[in-house]
Amino acid sequence: MSVSPALISARESATDSDFSAAESKYQAIIKSPQEAGVPENKTLQEQEAAILELGKIYQKQQAKEKISALISESKTVLGTFAKSKTAKIIKTLIEYIDGIPDSVDLSIKTTKECIEWAIESKLNFLKQSLQLKLASLLHQKHQYKEALRIITDLLSEYKKLDDKSSLVEVQLLESQIYHALRNIPKSRAALTSARTSANAIYCPTLLQAELDCQSGILNAEDKDYKTAFSYFYESFEGFNSQEDHRAIVVLKYMLLTKIMLNLVDDVNNILGHKNVVKYQSRDIDAMKSIATAYSNRSLKDFEGSLVTYADELKSDSIIKSHFNALYDNLLEQNLLKIIESYSTVELSHISKTIGLSLNQVEGKLSQMILDKVFYGVLDQGNGWLIVYDKPRKDATYEASLDLVKHLSSVVDLLYEKASSLN
């Protein structure tokens, strides 16, 4: 179908970066009434193209308020589209807002307004689709309680409709929210339900990659890093094949599992793969730096990496939590190495040797003693750590208990026999 001169002119203005002129021309197309002699479907196609292309211009300009206004202004026109087309346009425009930094609050506000409009217009499919998007936005905003309330309603509706494709998305989001709440059993149960639903349908590549990523995250929580790596690898392949921006995040998770297993050679092998070379960035440099520090058992280098690459390593809650555990493990190993040759050692000496404050050293040593990593006591009055040998179990005590137990059995049997004779 041929394109109208008005749309061609608007596109030329957009190409020439004359966004003010392009905006006026696109607005004119959106608001133009149905012309006599022009097929209705052609008018609707041009209005759809104008709305989406104008939204794209606003996204480039990071004019999130204008996109929100565009959605509101276009609702009259959107009412003339087919329901599926209306849903596609609104969801796309909301995604444009969501793609702009610091726009979560506006995305939530706009989505709620669109849900109300969908209810008034009796667009049930759009309402459900937007509710899922709203739950995802609330998850980003850490408003988990409200997100779970929406998900509970959606699960009920989709189960009645037997809409397994939508069920997979809702159950996956439910798993992610429970994981954020640190309710691992419920997160695992929701993921199992999502995978069961996914097995009954054709699962799109990106959705399958999300499922694999969540499986990897939950296996990493169980410290099963080998299985986690397998899931992350499948997830990376899926995101990479679709050139999705989440591929680099999953790549970091792949490297994380190898670091946790202390397989630095594998880290280097992964980074040398042809599919991975294009992702070289500060994010990847941060992971390499941590891998090297952990391999060398250098607490100083590890801390240096955490400071140098603070944004890259601490912005992701999953990487942050595992690296906290890694840091604790490395700190324990360094402390044990320092105190292993002493029976009594000054805390100030340990503090100076390891390069941490006295309070940090005291706190960590107290925790290690309580966890029975080693046996000892802190003499804070003198500022000493007194280290004890690992206590040995007295085998005589266990043997004595067994002997008494057997003698008791013998006495009971003799009593029974004596009773039968009487």
UniProtKB/TrEMBL annotation:
Coiled coil: 127-164
GO CC term, one of those recorded: proteasome complex
Residue stretches spanning the membrane: none
SMART domains, A to Z: PAM, PINT
Source domain of life: Eukaryota
InterPro entries in alphabetical order: 26S_Proteasome/COP9_Components (IPR050871), PCI_dom (IPR000717), Rpn6_C_helix (IPR040780), Rpn6_N (IPR040773), WH_DNA-bd_sf (IPR036390)
Keywords in alphabetical order: Coiled coil, Proteasome
Start and end residues of each PCI domain: 224-392
Record-stated family: Belongs to the proteasome subunit S9 family.
Name the UniProt record assigns to this protein: 26S proteasome regulatory subunit Rpn6p
